[in-house]
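User: Hey, quick favor. My workstation is busy. Could you predict this chain's structure for me?
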Amino acid sequence: MNAKWIWNNLDIVKDDYSEFVCDFNSTIDKATLMISADTNYAIFLNDKYVPGTQYACFPYNPVYDLIKLKVNRGYNKLRIIVYYCGSKNFSTYYLDKPGLYFTLFDEDNNTIMVSDENIKSSRYLPYESNRCKNITKQLGYSFKYNKNNELLPVNYQNSIIVDKSYNFTLRENKALKLLKRVEEKILSVDKRHILVDLGKEQTGYICLELISKEESNLIVSFGEHLIDSKVRRIIHDRDFSFEYVSSKGINKFTSYLRRVGCRYIEVSSDKDVVFKHISIIPTVYPFTKKQYKIDNELEKKIYETSIYTLECCYHEHYEDCPWREQSFYTLDSRNQILAGYYAFKNREQVRSALKLISLDNRKDNMLSICCPSSFDYVIPSFSLHYFTAIYEYYKYTKDKTLLVEIYPKLEKLINAFISKINKDDNLLYNFEGDVYWNFYEWKEGLDNPIAKTDLILNTLFLISLDNMYKISKIIGKKDDRYKELIKTMKPSINKSFYNPKKKLYYFSKDNKQYTCLGNSLAILSGIANKSKQQYIAKVLSSENDLTKVTLSMKCFLYDALLKVSYDYKDYILNDIDTTYKKMLDDGATTFYETELGAYDFDGAGSLCHGWSAMPIYYYNLFGIVKK
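Assistant: No problem, here it is.
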């Protein structure tokens, strides 16, 4: 029996929920479910939830899970609820047809049941389908769940076959684990309102229990901080909430199809209810942490908070922040991966993530802003950070197989940049068009600059060429073209962006902005000779009027200083301790997107951001961490 992609026989809509049901008898008590779905699934065996989430993948390379089931000897009922996003406008999802694919088999690999037209299905009525209400433009749609609709009669019919003929890949990283429900602290409560504190940043499924005398409409809001003792539900066009309609009596609900990140949860009801609890069931990746010892209490706290920040920012793949986006960016993940080499023994999650990026298949051969996503948008500089992440993967794992596997993609990517080199001046020119965002970091003049060519893009490109050369050499395809191109471009970059009077590099011909990031990259790319490097390092490590780096880019400043002299160690350690102590003193349980925290981005700044965990790397580098 061959499994097929299936869906219910109703019209396909966005933001849709379907239910698939099937009965089977078993003479054994163990079985395995091979399953894949677009977009996510929740499995219930004999009315009990079975942990599992769909790996976020490209639909043309679907990933399946193998889930062990403990079945009854005799009668069993399998229910699978599948959520379908159906939109191309989110950075966390790649648009394709809806579908469920599964095979249930026993310990001897005998097939018990497969997904085909004989599986009964229907729209899942408790969730409101085609509601299409955004949380954020990254996260996707929120939801409305009506408890009363669980009792409505359902017209199950045979499923239809969906044309989705792709080759499957087994999930390479590990499945998530569910922990015990967090014991929340009630900050305020009455018959129509409750506000709870989870104690620290948490990621997982919101769960609630309440008693209602009549049908009630509830709004469940979640956030990382409070203002005027309230969760900030609405921030500009973002709405961090979902709706729940209670039935008369006891209500229990867990949001298995939507993971959130938050510290605070607030519930408002239009009718009197009795709140039993509102909390989160954490979903975590099963990292194996490396043992460590740190003598200094402040640095120990910074280190442990950095590790927890990393843990909150990895699930199916790396995430920038679990609250606002849950998006997989190449730059963000490079920082997370580098720190993670020192924090965790695991490597499978790194390989899985880097492989996933390589499967992005744009016509321009660039990398999409996030992965996997069909949102047509590119940050060219982020594509360049991919070469760094790949070379560092080999440096820390010595695994050549990934490099060999993705090398054709790396060639296409580097050639996309090479094609933008102007032969008249030997400079790399910026990509033009509405789909390209020439972003470097969250500082004025660098977040959306307008320049035909600039210092930062060209220096990042030189670093990428060097990494590409090293990668080609490692896998036995040594390509000297990359080295020759570096030699050709260095004089041109110096001529175009260096001010000999100021002895510093400026951003572009039309923007004589002097930045810490640009001058750090001038050192790291090698366009600055030793005497220039020494002067620039002195400027970078002292009070100056250069545009400062934010938390995402401090690693480039630190690495530039260390390239000049290891004597800058004390400066770097002092800067880390001072910067991160401010966040801890502010009550941080994870580290922020930028130093301004929640007050940045007009009140939408994230208080948990993976790229800010880099103290792990430098504390290990400097011997602060004792093994």
